[in-house]
Amino acid sequence: GAKWTYSGQDGQQYWSKHYPYCGGPFQSPIDIESELLRFDPTLGPIEVQNYDLSPDEQLTLGNNGHSVQLSLPGKMYISSLPRRYTAAQLHLHWGSSSKPAGSEHLVNSRQYAAELHVVHFNSDKYPNMSMAVDKSDGLAVLGVLIEVGEFNPAFEQFLKFINGVKYRDQKVQIPGFNIRGLLPPRLDEYYRYDGSLTTPPCYPSVLWTLFRNPVTISRKQFVALATSLYSSHAQDSTPLPLNSNFRKPQAVDSRVVLVSFKE
Ligand SMILES: NS(=O)(=O)c1c(F)c(F)c(S(=O)(=O)CCO)c(N[C@H]2CCc3ccccc32)c1F
Ligand SMILES: [Zn+2]
């Protein structure tokens, strides 16, 4: 598709020119404000299967020009939803070293340093991500808010390879590790709403689960994430730093955000 960026002449306020869904309803991310919340007692703990990957497994870490992404094996899935949602990839959104606020979802207008997304597709109904990505029941994304604090050994398992994917379209193979370690300790407390991809083509195809509790990474880890990557190819004469790759909050309209917790 057409090229898009987060700012400048191809920035997010122009996405809808080439990607009409980006200007439509049910868009993500949103600012999750207290008055939108409704407790839903049917929302049980999120259960994930086969997230504990052996170091004998190879995963592809890549720079796709918009984010750093990690491919995930099809044996990983979410088992607590009405349909099986199989993992496809994970990626992050972050700010910059000068402005360490880069999460996509806000909570009561607070923007966190970064946000992790683990993207899954409805494998009960669709054979792969590409067939699922534009279907209203196609995707389920687990979101984790990230703040700067204690060093995070789980994130280090891929951050330590980030200098191998500095430039667009670079990829490296990394050993598998326990992906569950990237999620917060409690998977029973989360926000739930119907939304979209936060990048073009912005299909309204995502069942969003954003965990209530943030995880931490150290300042050094955050700076590595925020300063190591470029959205340009290695041979490009003008290197374009890849940072602040977050979409602004979108209109909630008449949507309600369900919560799995009481207070
Ligand atoms: N925030 S988000 O979860 O909406 C989201 C992203 F923010 C994002 F950057 C990507 S991407 O693939 O890294 C780059 C643009 O598609 C995807 N990738 C998805 C969308 C399309 C697709 C196809 C195959 C595998 C993954 C994806 C994504 F779902
Ligand atoms: Zn994302």
Structural category is: mainly beta
Beta-strand level of the residues, as a percent range?
25-35%
Shape assignment: globular
The kinds of small molecule bound in this structure are: the ligand NS(=O)(=O)c1c(F)c(F)c(S(=O)(=O)CCO)c(N[C@H]2CCc3ccccc32)c1F, zinc ion
Low-confidence segments:
none
Helix content bin = under 10%
State mean pLDDT (0 to 100 scale). 98
Distance between the termini: 44 Å
Q: Output the number of helix runs.
A: 4
Biggest sheet: strands, sense, closure?
A: 13 strands, mixed
Order of helices and strands: HEEEEEEEEEEHEHEEEEHE
Tell me the radius of gyration: 17 Å
Secondary structure tally: strands: 16
Structural write-up:
- With 263 residues, this protein is mainly beta.
- It is built from four helices and 16 strands.
- It has helices spanning 15-18, 129-132, 153-159, 219-227; strands at residues 31-32, 37-39, 48-49, 58-63, 68-71, 77-78, 85-94, 106-107, 110-111, 114-122, 139-148, 171-175, 190-195, 206-211, 215-217, 257-259.
- The strands form two sheets. Strands 2, 3, 4, 5, 6, 7, 10, 11, 12, 13, 14, 15 and 16 form a 13-stranded mixed sheet that branches. A three-stranded mixed sheet has the order 1-8-9, with no helix packed on it.
- The longest helix is centred in the C-terminal third of the chain and has 9 residues, at 219-227.
- The chain starts with 14 loop residues before the first helix and ends with a strand.
- Residues 64, 66-67, 69, 88-89, 91, 117, 119, 129, 133, 141, 197-199 line the site of ligand 5EF.
